[in-house]
Amino acid sequence: MQYSSKFQAMADAAQARVEGIAPSSVKERLANGAIALDIRDSDEHAKGHIEGSLNISRGKLEMIIEDTIPNLETEILCYCNANNRGALSAASLKGMGYVNAKYIAGGLNSYKSL
Predict the structure, then answer these.
(1) What are the DSSP calls for 7-22, one per residue?
(2) What is the C-alpha to C-alpha distance for residues 82 and 99, in angstroms, rounded to an integer?
(3) Facing residues of 79 across strands?
(4) pLDDT category, 96, cuts 50, 70, 90?
(5) Rounded CA separation 89/101 (Å)
(6) pLDDT greater than 80 at residue 8
(7) What residues does 102 pair with on adjacent strands?
(8) Nearest Cα to Cα of residue 53 among 30, 73, 85
(9) Structural domains in the chain plus CATH codes
(10) Are 79 and 108 in contact (CB under 8 A)?
(11) I need a surface site. Which of 32, 36, 88, 91 has the fewest CB within 10 A?
């Protein structure tokens, strides 16, 4: 998908501000208490997702995250299909005080290719 230059600049800045984690480390992190957060829309989530992940669409993330994950110390692994929405979501969560918000580098596409 071709993105606008302004959107891509925002996504690139988000990727520079938050930690991107290797897809190969996801299972271990989940076993140690991290939460995988699928920020894609529900129809995308229904087509496939990381087992056990929560689904909160990007458009509602900031409105409901505090009720869903109240602990600001929780490691949250945001993901979309690739990088952009996952990184933007992790950056937004960091701004809300979630100190361990990260994104899965390469998103679901990279995770599924393992």
Answers:
(1) HHHHHHHHHHHS-EE-
(2) 22
(3) 38
(4) very high
(5) 9
(6) yes
(7) 77
(8) 30
(9) 7-112 (3.40.250.10)
(10) yes
(11) 32
